[in-house]
Amino acid sequence: MIVWSLFDSGEGAYQRTIKQYFDGVLENYSLGIDKLNESNNFININLADYNAIFGDDTLFDTLDNLPKPDIILASPPCESWSVASAMKGGNSCYVWNTGELIMRTDASMTINNDHSPFKRIPWKVMYTRVNGELCAYNTVRIIQRYQPKYWVIENPYSSHIWFYLEHYHGFKGYLNQAHYGAYSDEFPRKATGFMSNVELSLKKMPKGARSKVSLAWHKNDSRKQIHNYNKRSDIPTELVHDILNQILDKENSSEQLITENL
């Protein structure tokens, strides 16, 4: 089976897991851009590409040359969707307590350019929002264009990407929750959502339980905090293994059912 691993260009969790556990069973193509330039073991492609509106379809021209995927795994960047930059009513990119996503334009966030149409929006915040929406939107476009039998999208469980996908693109699925710490002592508890077109049964930690490395990921403990973007975006190998095992079990059950009905 062919797997496309979107945004798998940092620690390469999907590629790493497939090499370790599914060699000869799954053929993986990792795609994305490593913002830290620490890895090159992937197909370098801008998944936030917006040039299609100008008639330049480089994104799909490139993807059309790959074997058609049976499985798409995607981890679009979560910065614009998460509560990591929590502010009143939302985060640094959005106000979301009104039932919709509205660009934040708080007076306290003004920049010194009276002639700018975005004078109340710092450029980093605006870039983060636009990049997040493009990555999410292109993930939907890719899944809809190539119609894989199975797809999984990863983001924090509390991420507002789920709201964006459903209410702005009519795209939804099963939102399966997992805790990273339930799969590895090297990761924090980290409640994470894996939205997919099939229901998955993933591990969660008991209420109130903390992993051994929680402090290393906590923003208030600067002595132990993990700052590396790729590391903070990594996914436990055993969690990816569990997801792919469940998908393959469903595939095998489906094939067996077809055979029995012949």
UniProtKB/TrEMBL annotation:
InterPro entries: C5_DNA_meth_AS, C5_MeTfrase, SAM-dependent_MTases_sf
Keywords on record: Methyltransferase, Plasmid, Restriction system, S-adenosyl-L-methionine, Transferase
SUPFAM superfamilies: S-adenosyl-L-methionine-dependent methyltransferases
GO annotation, biological process: DNA restriction-modification system; methylation
Pfam hit, one: DNA_methylase
UniProt keyword annotation of Transmembrane helix present: no
Methyltransferase found in the keyword field: yes
Annotated Gene3D superfamilies: Vaccinia Virus protein VP39
GO terms, molecular function: methyltransferase activity
Highest taxon above the source species: Bacteria
Protein name as annotated: Uncharacterized protein
Originating species: Limosilactobacillus mucosae LM1
